[in-house]
Design goal:
- By secondary structure, the chain is α/β, with parallel strands linked by helices.
- The protein is 31% helix and 20% strand.
- The chain contains ten helices and 16 strands.
- It has helices at 83-94, 126-133, 143-151, 210-218, 234-245, 256-277, 288-294, 299-307, 313-317, 329-341; strands at residues 23-25, 35-37, 47-53, 58-64, 67-68, 74-75, 101-106, 115-116, 123-124, 138-142, 159-163, 172-177, 181-189, 192-194, 283-286, 321-324.
- It is globular, with a radius of gyration of 23 Å.
- Belongs to the bacterial glucokinase family.
- Keywords: Kinase, Transferase.
Length: 342
């Protein structure tokens, strides 16, 4: 045991084992909330660096035993695309001790051992991460996998009901509307939670309403879902629809025409995703744009448009729509994945 971490034993009690690790904060040489660790012991779970990287944000934290250590949550300054430099900034403040593994969810599709992000100039490379952290296991996965596993870790305080029944039964659908768009299905079975990766934001958007058919005409005849339902789509939507309707205004979501198109597109998209995956357990909306839309759209109308009057309307009517208000759902999923590896 390191001298500064030693504590006196209670009278009659056995002395503490000399090789037990110590997790401490704020001790000598341990300023600014850094964490330090003593010797390894199987009584103490491994320490993981976890991350959630989207189109405009990088969130990092430390996790142990499948749980985020709240005091280590950190958001990187905007404008940096060098992930190794971001890691160095984080470690300078929070992680002076040993990190024994890495689990990062990012908005992109892993391939050839790398994870290039879809909507930013960043590529995650396990070797670059090890160059900064040492020879530790590195797990990189699609951000929706992180969100899917994190969904089961949320309490009622992290959820807000928007439309439909209060609860559903069956597989659940997570729809992330942020800089881009994606969706995943969350299955629960005898072996536990299973979340397959997905790039479902790039499916072709069905032109099932007049507003969507008109929009497709403005876009050259066809649009993918992310071209309409995403943060990066809002400036384009505001420009083309405001010009068409001779409206002005800086806030894209303030335009009634923009709201109408997004509502129609989202209803059609959610309907297709629910039926593709039989996600009768509910739709869970995540991401910054979802938070903004929650207070702009009429969700009773969106739900009714999703249900429609076609096949499986009775099934769709039983699917609730819920907003995830916890901004750390993907990090919670990363912590769960990391905890399962220890």
């Amino acid at each position: 045991m390191q001298p500064e971490a030693a504590e006196a034993a209670a009278p009659g009690a056995a002395a503490a084992a000399p090789d037990l690790p110590q997790l401490r904060r704020g001790g000598p040489g341990n300023a600014r909330g850094r964490f330090a660790f003593g010797a390894r012991c199987d009584l103490y779970p491994r320490m993981y660096l976890i991350g959630d990287i989207g189109g405009t944000s990088v969130r990092l934290a430390l996790a142990q035993a499948g749980q985020i250590l709240p005091d280590t949550l950190w958001r990187a300054p905007a404008g940096t695309e060098d992930f190794r430099a971001i890691l160095a900034q984080y470690r300078a403040v929070y992680a002076s001790g040993d990190i024994e593994g890495v689990a990062i969810a990012a908005a992109g599709a892993p391939r050839d051992g790398l994870l290039p992000l879809t909507n930013r100039a960043m590529v995650l490379d396990p070797e670059e991460i090890r160059a900064e952290l040492g020879q530790v296991p590195v797990t990189l996965f699609n951000d929706m996998v992180g969100q899917g596993y994190g969904l089961s870790r949320l309490g009622p305080d992290g959820l807000r009901h928007l439309a439909g029944p209060q609860t559903g039964q069956g597989a659940r659908l997570v729809v992330n509307i942020g800089t881009g768009l994606n969706a995943c299905v969350v299955h629960e079975g005898p072996a536990g939670t299973f979340v397959p990766p997905s790039e479902a934001g790039n499916v072709t958007l069905p032109q099932v309403t007049d507003s969507l058919r008109a929009l497709a005409g403005l876009h050259g005849g066809e649009v993918v879902a992310e071209d309409v339902i995403s943060g990066r789509a809002l400036p384009w939507l505001a420009k083309v629809l405001a010009e068409r309707d001779n409206q002005q205004g800086a806030d894209a979501l303030a335009h009634a025409a923009v709201q109408r198109v997004i509502a129609d597109a989202l209803a059609a998209y959610m309907r297709d995703m629910v039926l593709c995956h039989m996600a009768t357990g509910g739709i869970f909306l995540t991401g910054g744009v979802s938070m903004a839309l929650a207070d702009v759209l009429d969700w009773t109308e969106v739900h009714a448009a999703m249900v429609g009057g076609r096949a499986y309307a009775d099934l769709l009517a039983r699917v609730p729509v819920t907003l995830v208000t916890d901004p750390h759902v993907a990090l919670r999923g990363c912590a769960a994945i990391a905890g399962a590896q220890t």
